[in-house]
Amino acid sequence: MFKQNEHQPEGFQAPLKEALDNLKYNSEGLVPAIAQQHDTGEVLMMAWMNREAIEETLNTGRVCYFSRSRNTLWRKGESSGQMQMLKELRIDCDADTLLVKVDQTGPACHTGRRDCFYWKADADSVTIDKTPIIDPKELYK
Question: What is the pLDDT of residue 79?
Fold first, then answer.
């Protein structure tokens, strides 16, 4: 569906069901989702979504992912209070990655940092370059 319609003009629409049917889920039924702060462009985290998580996110406006470690839906912030509210959900041209533009409350990372990308790599080493904004013990009381 996506490849066949990539030359359509701006404004072309397709039914959501058809789009979700044609996402390139992996063997576990998941697709990667990049969370980005909607107003600053800051990349916050990467997580996984299954079809149910995508549908719940679109229907409720609160971002829901699929936790591979817990093997269940994970509503961002359900234990920490650091929620993500959906502003926009986009599908890439290959239909194998989602961009979830959100309004993030506080830190997005379980370490208490604003985002999960706090390791900076260069040719010689990797360095932590961000400080937690909230102690993780406070996040998960």
Answer: 81
